[in-house]
Amino acid sequence: MAEKRIADVRRKVSNFLDTDVPVKTGNIVETQNLTKVYRMGKIDISALTGVDLKVPRGDMICLYGPSGSGKSTLLNLIGGLDKPTSGRIMVDGVDLTKLGGNQLAEFRLRKVGFIFQNYNLIPTLSALENVELPMIFAKVQKKERKKRAVEMLASVKMDDRLKHKPDELSGGQQQRVAIARALVNRPSIILADEPTGAIDTETIRMLMRIIRELNSEGQTFVIVTHDLLVAQACKRSIILRDGRIERELTGKEIAQAIIASGRENARS
Amino acid sequence: MSYVIMAVRNLSRSKLRTTLTTLGIVVGVSLMVALFAIGEGMNVRMEEQLRALGGAEIMIYSTSGTRGMRVATRGNPISEEYVETVKAIPGVELATGILSGSGEARKNQTFIIGIDPESYFQLMGELNIIEGRTLLPSDLDSYGTVIGLNLAEELNVTIGSNLNTKSWGGAWDAPWISFEIVGICETGNPQQDRGMFIHLSHAQYILTSKDEYGAGERHVTQILVKTEDPSQIDDVVKRIEETVPDVRVFAAKTMIQRIQESMSTMILFLEGIGSIALIAGTIGILNTMMMSVFERTREIGTLKAIGAKDREILVIILTEAAIIGILAGAIGCMTGAAGTLLWANFSRTGYGITSIQPVITLEILLTMFGIGIVTGVLAGLYPAWRASRMDPVEALRHG
Ligand SMILES: Nc1ncnc2c1ncn2[C@@H]1O[C@H](COP(=O)(O)OP(=O)(O)O)[C@@H](O)[C@H]1O
Ligand SMILES: [Mg+2]
Question: Which helix (H) or strand (E) holds B250?
Fold first, then answer.
């Protein structure tokens, strides 16, 4: 009786992701008039105001802007970590504003891969185990889990460091493991919040090469950054300012800005 | 890899803290194991005492000082002539006098029980003789003794062996008798099974005589009484109290009641101590789990971001708590059992409360192991709930 109910709920939870909207648009992400207000005591802080963003499938888009412009807030809303004050977010055909806590967790598990500035690997787990972790939550069988984790680590060229713990890896290596972890449940979209914030230029290039390679295989990325090298590596860059989308940045502008800042071209 | 492995890794991340946390419950559990074992031992002891009472319905002890008695004798003396006085009291069917005390046989401590075989066995029933024969009136002249099985094994003696016996701790010229073993008994009463049944006047010589050449005092330490009509016991008690001076008279059934009462108070008290230790242990776990959850705030945020549901976070943290509980329960049971056995070894020859032989049963161990686990899980409940309810964005922003 109880088991049957749990099974029903489980089916509902896992099916809503596929069946909610029958017609999928070409956009993986579509936000409408998205607003986020943080209430700090008596003061309201508008982190996002009327954001309309469309991210086509297979895109590799960069959210560029100064600190406090609302980049992280937007990314967290798209990733189902947080709920908007008003507006609508559709991600891969799912209306996130309609989901409850457990459904959001299921959504993050199946549809989203997160990459963080400080990698956020679990320090007690090896590289392999860290990559296995999302599959444990997704109830993937042990054998399949191992196989896929090794594959993913190979795709970021980390298959020679399977047994290493995070503190035995360099920053760039940790971030590659984190990328493998984000990829392993075959998400619709990968969201990266300043993934290169703590990494040297040489390693940034290497990481961006890996990300571009994955993107060329069809993986959609949204990357928050204030690093021009990262922006340059992306297909599109959108400037955020004071919680609004200001405009799109052209490649030429980025190149000029990089030269002006004295850093060499990231694509060379 | 599983939640269990994750939990073990987490616990071994700060070994000292885990150890200290575990210690709280270990102390509680081992204390409880020891206390329950003592409680169980008390039960066993009471059953033995009940059995030892045999047909005795009334017991008479003296209230007066140790006039002319050695320290070795147990209880204060009553003049032997009162045995006859008691017999003459209306309502008394049988009465027998006993003189008991610590003795020394072949340098080993033993328990001397001086009896008048005829009236004693009539009142108390026959001894359970496993070898040889029981004590007879004729052993008065032939210096026969019936000893307990445990004493026989300890001294490695058998029927026909001689035992030089004097009072325990007696001087070099203390009066002694060489007894011949005529029988070996097993009564189930630990004192009797390490003791020697001898004639009353032999016991009087050994335990109360001033020196080798003096005769013993005609004393007993107890008089046991059987009534004609058990429903009249209270009246008989009253009559004895009125007739015999300086004695305390107990009806067996009130004595048993009193023992039971004091024992249940004792056990309640012991359980109280154990519970306090367990509660302290629980608070310890709660505290360290809260700390460890707080320290891992960002990790928990990460787990949520990659798709862990609240319930899964709850299970992960509870698994850690359960492992602490299992460890603490197991170690606590072991240390508790070890401590109890030590106590048992130490208390083998004592009297009174210290003579209680703790009894460890499988039931005690399983119960306490279970309580250890339950304590761990209970203590982990709140920290686990807090962790599961963390807001992922807040958690990820955490230092
Ligand atoms: N939890 C919060 N509570 C209050 N204000 C917040 C919170 N999170 C973000 N903000 C505010 O919202 C604005 C946007 O923040 P954020 O999205 O983190 O910017 P960015 O990632 O571009 O630096 C900032 O003014 C920030 O102070
Ligand atoms: Mg940010």
Answer: strand B247-251
Residue list, ligand 1 pocket, CB within 6 Å: A 38, 40, 45, 47, 65, 67-73
ipTM for the complex shown: 0.87
**Cα separation, B324 vs B300, whole angstroms:** 20
For B276-335, write each residue's pLDDT tens digit.
888 888 888 898 889 989 999 999 999 999 999 999 999 999 999 999 999 999 999 999
Structure tokens at B388: 């599961």
Asked if residue B241 and residue B206 are part of one domain, the reply reads yes
Domains of chain A: 2-267 (3.40.50.300)
Domain shared by B91 and B229, yes or no:
yes
Compute the distance between CA of residue A146 and CA of residue B243 in angstroms, rounded to an integer. Answer: 92
What atom in ligand 1 is closest to the CA of residue A69?
22
Q: Residues A83, A97: contact at Cβ < 8 Å? A: yes
- Report the percentage of chain B scoring pLDDT > 90: 44
pTM for this model (two decimals): 0.72
Nearest 5°: the CA angle B180, B182, B183 is 135
A236: β partners: A61
Residues B266 and B236 grouped into a single domain? no
What range defines the domain where residue B391 resides? 2-49+258-397
Q: Does B306 touch chain A (CB under 8 A)?
A: yes
pLDDT of A33-71, one tens digit each?
999 999 888 899 898 998 999 999 999 999 998 889 999
Which of B251, B256, B252, B257 has its CA nearest to residue B236? B251
- Our count of domains for chain B comes to 2
Q: Is the pLDDT of residue B259 over 60?
A: yes
